[in-house]
Amino acid sequence: MTSEIVLVGRSNVGxxxxxxxxxxxxxxxxxxxxxxxxxxxxxxxNVVYVDMPGYGYMKGAGxxxxxxxxxxxxxxxxxxxxxxxxxxxxxxxxxxxxxxxxWEERGDIPLEVELFEFLTELDLAVxxxxxxxxxxxxxxxxxxxIAERLGMxxxxxxxxxxxxxxxxxxxxxxxLKEIIRSRLPSRGGRSQS
Length: 193
Ligand code: GDP
Prior knowledge:
single chain, 193 residues, alpha/beta, Rossmann fold, 6 helices, binds guanosine-5'-diphosphate
């Protein structure tokens, strides 16, 4: 059985930038706005990295395509739960709280909070990659707010296995790599001490 590490999140949060960093792959076939495509995949060692299409709003895509993509993503997670080593929910740390609060004010459950709850309820190992930290003025305060919106009691530093502040564009993703390493199966059945 293959083990997957799956990247998911709304579009423009930096998923493909992160996918390239993690896998060294540049190619992204058939990814155009408005076209529902399967996820991008790349094999690294004995793990398959999977990059899902954007969850929710997609520039240039109609409502029907967006809903179809959401359904596809949800179904794929449900069907592949057993094979998923780690789900990486990528968020834009610089805009997450503002967007979540806007949804709350409208009386809606914020899309990304809903996605996080869905992944957690599937009993998956989930990490939130808080990307674009280079754009955030007060990292600790922002990460506390993000944790709080996701139902984790601040301070965020209690949740370093669940929240990884990164900047994919700057290549600064060590906290996430550390979490990935901790999830990787030991090679050749030898124990990793
Ligand atoms: P995707 O739609 O989620 O796959 O997002 P992309 O990887 O295409 O990135 C969307 C935009 O965000 C691009 O302009 C990236 O250069 C930019 N971006 C990605 N990561 C970062 C980051 O860590 N910091 C900043 N400031 N911009 C980023």
